[in-house]
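Researcher: I'd like a candidate sequence for this fold, 153 residues long. If you have to choose between options at a position, lean toward the conservative one.
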């Protein structure tokens, strides 16, 4: 689209130049056409450059999404292992503490040391999901940029 509009603006500049050099008195119209064509050409050139950058960055979006999904699956398995280990530890602690008072139970029940690790993993997992969402939005933007460049998909 922008490429086509750039070609049209170049055509307008050429027509304006022809009117400026014509033997008839069309200098005002020719100058106006050259100015309009030049402004449109600059605008569409900037549009092309911006959209080319978006399309070029879109080449690796699929790989980035795959990377984040792989990292998320690793995090899921790590968190799953940590939760299972913690549940086993919790069962062992309660089995040992049967028949004791609540104060002894509290002292036997340690804080989950891996709790901070799990929270950190979940934070990374959520951040990765946010990045995947942004990359999918960028993928849509790439198709729009391709349309603006050359009516592409």
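Model: Candidate sequence:
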């Amino acid at each position: 689209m922008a490429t086509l509009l750039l070609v049209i603006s170049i055509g307008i500049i050429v027509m304006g130049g022809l009117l400026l050099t014509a033997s008839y008195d069309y200098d005002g119209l020719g100058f106006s056409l050259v100015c309009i064509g030049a402004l449109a050409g600059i605008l569409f050139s900037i549009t092309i450059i911006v959209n080319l950058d978006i399309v070029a960055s879109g080449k690796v979006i699929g790989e980035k999404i795959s990377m984040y999904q792989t990292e998320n699956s690793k995090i899921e398995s790590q968190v799953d292992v940590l939760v299972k280990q913690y549940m086993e530890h919790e069962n062992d602690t309660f089995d040992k503490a049967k028949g004791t008072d609540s104060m002894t139970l509290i002292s036997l029940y340690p804080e989950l040391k891996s709790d901070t690790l799990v929270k950190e993993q979940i934070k990374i997992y959520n951040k990765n999901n946010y990045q995947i969402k942004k990359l999918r939005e960028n993928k849509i933007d790439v198709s729009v940029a391709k349309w603006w460049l050359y009516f592409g998909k």
